[in-house]
Amino acid sequence: MFRAACVQLRSGEDVGENVRAASGLIREAAEGGAQFIATPENTTLMAADADAKLTSSYFMADDPALPAFAALAAELGIHLLIGSVAIKLNETKTANRSILFKPDGRISARYDKIHLFDVELDSGEAYAESATVAGGSQAVLAPTPWGKIGMTVCYDIRFPQLYRTLAMDGAFAFTVPSAFTVPTGTAHWHVLLRARAIENGAFVFAPAQGGTHANGRKTYGHSLIVGPWGEVLAEAGTEPGVIYAEIDPARSAAARAKLPNLRHTRDFDGP
User: Fold this and answer.
1) Active site residue 154
2) Nearest Cα to 152, choosing from 171, 129, 134?
3) Which of 97, 189, 194, 212 is 20 to 30 A from residue 236's alpha carbon, by CA?
4) Tens of pLDDT, residue by residue, the chain (271 residues)
5) Catalytic site residue 75?
6) Which of these is catalytic: 88, 113, 129, 148?
7) Does 17 qualify as catalytic in the annotation?
8) In terms of Cα–Cα distance, which of 180, 116, 110 is closest to 139?
């Protein structure tokens, strides 16, 4: 058993301020007894446009936020998932990278978002993440004292094959740090997260960005922790804050025993 927490943020364009705000809520979560704490996608930067993102991003070795979060994980003795940071790969591309720190401050796992959000919504909002982000190509299982956790980011949630692969390889839980738009969040956020939990008999930790950001962008919020039977264990609103849930990894095994669909997966030919 362990206590998990999702930190909900409203990050802006000031990296230093974003780190300060996130750190304060991470401390609050640790004071609330959380041993595993996760923050949203774009924890350190919600840039106004592609150029601003590239200008404010750093190469992995130079990013000032990472030593700060490493030190915080070590100080608090927690497993700390920084949902994602824009890590510069070259002068035109970043990786949307999720990073898990161990209680000694070292990185135990990192994952680059595979599926990129290139979408035009009916509301008129348009996003072309691939213009400045290089998609990852490797699924990642993070080791923890409680079992393996599958790392994903935001738009990945719409690709169930990724979660099935992670579950088949031993994940009892998934992380889905996100910055969902309001239209897609209103329509799909809860059902997608609950579906991935139910399909795989897994917990889902989904910390989110929420509210109207300084640059005018609006995100859905409603950070969620979902149980392996699809039940919502904790939910935020739209304001920054922390939600908690008690996690028993044995409940994942129990759900999979009740509905052993992972064992019933079969290969098949296409039409």
Assistant:
1) yes
2) 171
3) 97
4) 999 999 999 999 999 999 999 999 999 999 999 999 999 999 999 987 777 888 889 999 999 999 999 999 999 999 999 999 999 999 899 999 999 999 999 999 999 999 998 877 777 667 788 888 999 999 999 999 999 999 999 999 999 999 999 999 999 999 999 999 999 999 999 999 999 999 999 999 999 999 999 888 999 999 999 999 999 999 999 999 999 999 999 999 999 999 999 999 999 999 9
5) no
6) 113
7) no
8) 110
